[in-house]
What we know:
Strand content: 25-35%
Radius of gyration: 25 Å
Helix content: 10-25%
Oligomer: single chain
Mean pLDDT: 93
Order of helices and strands: EEEHEEEHHHHEHEHEEHHEEEEEEEEEEE
Amino acid sequence: MTFVDLKDIRVSYDGKQDILKDLSISMEKGELVSLLGPSGCGKTTTLRVIAGLIKPNDGSFELDDEELTKVPVHKRNFGMVFQSYALFPHLTIAENVAFGLKLRKESKAAMQEKVAKMLEVCGLENLGDRYPKQLSGGQRQRVALARALIIEPKLLLLDEPLSNLDAKLRVAMRIEIKRIQQQLGITTVFVTHDQEECFSISDKVAIMNNGVIEQYDSPEKIYRLPKTKFVAHFIGFENFFDVKKTAEGQYSSVGGQVFTTTNPEPATAEIVATIRPEDIEIVPESVDDSIEGTVVVRTFLGKSYQYEVQTSLGKLLVNGTSEQIYETEATIHLAFPADKLVILEK
Length: 346
């Protein structure tokens, strides 16, 4: 059953250019959904519409079948965590976490019980008497998360909450966020521009581009089967070449090279083929439908090598094992497995 429902949301700041263009997205209760995309794509604007910080020009927002489009932010009962932790430096950690409860005028006993439980959930049980300046970045982020969660929000909104942390802390904190989110079963919207971060914790991902959602699906499906060239390029596909359809599951390049795919095929006539560097196979010359290429550049990746190969399709990036190493100017042959070749909308 749909819990969060955005329908035909349009946002324009100057009345001329739309930041969001008829955006629609639905989320199930208990899901962690990420909005992923480059700067300026509209992901933070979408989050602010949900939060009530921005009123859309058109469209509607419902939560649990309740219309909230015109409900002010302070009446939405949402928890929010932003890039800056916004902790009160003169309050202890326990007092920071209890802030929302204090505004609601809850009893002292109830506040103490809830704060103790939330500090434990967020791994802060021994830090309640400290002040923000005495904590690490990761600990302060947990305090901000605990403060957002203690009011038992209907929805948790996270806007690039890990961007101020170093790489190691980011990995640890994204695991913590997923653990806490699953433990509490809270529906969460997470904004990020980091693909790895997003894919590691999300139930669903919305890839955004210029105010629209280009693809909304599970991380696994988006990783394996992007629908458009923009999505494929954004999530790491690097080899693209023009093809035309000749039969069901069969395509040919401008030079007449034949390709087959077992993956879903788009209905549009404007198509392009793509495949990841690690999915192209270096094969013997005798393999049917393989193409010949010349190694132009070789790069060491640690466990393997990557080659830039000049072919009739243009330059392709190909990953090879360390068991067989090819020198520059070497001639190699490449095969494109049918289950790895993806046909996209241009």
